[in-house]
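pasting input
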Amino acid sequence: MLKPLYEKEDSLGTVHKNWDSEWWKKFLELSEDFTKTLVIRNVLTDAEVNQFNRWTLNALREVFLRQNTNYDFRLYIGSISQSFQYLKENLFIHLPKEDDTPHSWAERVFCNDEKFAIIMNSSEKFSDEMATKISEYYAPLIEIAGIPLRGINITIFIGNYGFTPLGIHKDHPGEHVMHLHLGPANKIMYNWDLDEYEKMTNNVQNNKNVTPLLAFADKYEFGTKDIYYMPWNKYHIGNTEEMSVGISIWFNHLPYRKLLPHMLRSFRRQIFSESNQSKIEFISPFLINNDDASNNSRKQFEQMIALFDEGMINPYNSFGTIIREVYEDYCISLSSNQGWNTVPISRDKDLVEGGQANMEDVHFSDDDEICAIKPFKIKYKKTGQNTISLFIRGNKIDLKFHPEIIKVIETINLSEPISVGELLERLNQSWPREVGVYILKMMYNLKGITLNKGEK
Ligand SMILES: [Fe+2]
């Protein structure tokens, strides 16, 4: 076991604070640049543990109310993953209460001796507060190490499942994971080196025959407030006999061989995003009996590539140029969301008492104050003489260019509260107020800024 990373004073007399850049540098040193498994003791405070438990319950609540399992939400009873129908009838009805802890909630929902595991992928989507807090923790690491090309995501593990129902497995290449342990029970992780494990077992994946292999594993035990880090190239399995909660944060490097398929997926999303679907028309069937077939096909081609214009990408560019554009937009988009793989739920889709929030009810007056949400920054890219793309929390928005837009973004990115009146005042007289308000409203809807209503 390694000694605690967090020390009030190091040998040089420097006081370290958890999650600051010195802390991360030490982490990189001890993990030998993400390559070694590591336990770091006593990183979280009691207040942080409580807060993360609360956000975990909020994320559950969001998933239950929306009945949304599209982001790979799973419930195992024993070792069996349950169907959507089962979740609807037996789990989603048990909304966590205000004063619940994950432990008290689970006691209410599951029978005493029942072994269960909840695995909630893309949890950053369902608790933006948790995502924002972890982005603060990770901001210095991102400054030092950059944003990994496959982004960052959160998976929450809840349960008393004993050995993880997935069996002994390895994660995808490049997926480095940091696990924040909330307890209350301890967890043990077992690691096997890739080659040794494959030799021993003849390469069995998701191996549930765990016990005979334990003697050959490296064992890492950790408790509430501790952190466990593991590189991707370990076979592993976790064990928590009693109820525990773990927040795992995935820092996903992209292998070279996955780069092109990944960019093509991003290209497809950018061009044929959901919002564009309604505008897509069918291309006329190709007439083979037409004498002037080449003329006909040319017309169809024009019709087809008109679809590309939706994505502001010039279809006459070479493939390489298009992919470069897609790559650039993908990276800017990821950086506007501090690396998170999913965009937050927009405010007009937030659940409020009595249904969904309504952006029509939101007004911006001069006395109101807006502020960027630290550490997120709004990014932009000038795309042509008269066009600009804004990147807000991972969303790309194409707008007509006014030089004033850049001034607005730069002022907002100072992350100081500023009154709506003052912000709009500072802008050029030619800037129509409605346009300014429209853009602020869009930033607010996408969770790029906060809004504090001023005195009337
Ligand atoms: Fe895993």
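fyi Residues 348-452 form a domain with the Outer Surface Protein A; domain 3 fold (CATH 3.90.930.40).
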